[in-house]
């Protein structure tokens, strides 16, 4: 009887948890996209300011050193937040996300110096439409995309290696091929991440700070998908100022 009672208690507790998370889910998903939009806005404002400042252009983009340091700092922040999210407070994690998005804006300021505003705007809206469609598919599809995620991550590793090789080869054709693959990879990763965020939120232990941290990490993942998709599409749709 004791065992039956314990089983009943566990089932009831599980049901209450599922009910709590299903009720909180819409709010948590809104937070994911609000945080992502906030980060994109910060990145855009900082990048615009850096790309239109002759002094910052001279300091940041005339040599590879500052960009390399900024890039390494960004990788360090992503690793730190992802690895220590359970130990960080929600406020601290949010501050690190803001710092990361501002730093990324500095590294992307060259876009406003290299491309016309019309080209950037056009590419942004194309990216937003593609991203929105894939995020919706990932959030609503009943198909498990886990296997696709593994394939996409292997493709991403190959993409990074090919990009590094082409830094030395400077092949226009290879650059176009890498860009095309990049668009496909981050289009797929958007759907995969959207489904993963949904699954992780529903599995969170409660709807409090722990779930909000899951939402924040989800916002970071989708932010990175959006930025990378935008950069690869810009190579196709962007018109250089030259």
TrEMBL record:
It is found in: Membrane. The chain crosses the membrane at residues 32-51, 63-81, 93-113, 150-170, 176-194, 214-234. Keywords: Membrane, Transmembrane, Transmembrane helix. It is a multi-pass membrane protein. The keyword Metal-binding does not apply. The keyword Transmembrane helix applies. One of its GO terms (cellular component) is plasma membrane. Belongs to the BI1 family. This is Uncharacterized protein. It comes from Prevotella multiformis DSM 16608. The lineage of its organism: Bacteria, Pseudomonadati, Bacteroidota, Bacteroidia, Bacteroidales.
């Amino acid at each position: 009887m004791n065992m039956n009672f314990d089983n009943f208690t566990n089932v009831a507790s599980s049901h209450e948890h599922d009910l709590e998370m299903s009720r909180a889910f819409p709010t948590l998903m809104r937070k994911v996209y609000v945080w992502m939009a906030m980060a994109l806005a910060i990145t855009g404002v900082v990048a615009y300011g850096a790309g239109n400042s002759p002094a910052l252009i001279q300091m940041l983009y005339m040599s590879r050193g500052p960009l390399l340091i900024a890039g390494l700092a960004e990788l360090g922040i992503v690793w730190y937040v992802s690895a220590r999210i359970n130990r960080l407070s929600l406020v601290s994690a949010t501050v690190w996300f803001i710092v990361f998005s501002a730093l990324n804006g500095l590294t992307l300021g060259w876009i406003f110096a290299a491309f016309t505003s019309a080209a950037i705007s056009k590419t942004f809206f194309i990216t937003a439409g593609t991203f929105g469609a894939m995020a919706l598919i990932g959030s609503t599809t009943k198909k498990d995309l886990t296997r696709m995620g593994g394939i996409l991550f292997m493709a991403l590793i190959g993409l990074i290696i090919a990009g590094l090789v082409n830094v030395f080869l400077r092949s226009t054709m290879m650059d176009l091929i890498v860009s095309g693959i990049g668009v496909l990879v981050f289009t797929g990763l958007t759907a995969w991440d959207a489904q993963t965020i949904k699954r992780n939120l529903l599995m969170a232990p409660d709807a409090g700070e722990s779930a909000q941290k899951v939402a924040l990490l989800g916002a970071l993942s989708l932010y990175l998908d959006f930025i990378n998709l935008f950069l690869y599409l810009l190579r196709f749709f962007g018109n250089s100022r030259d």
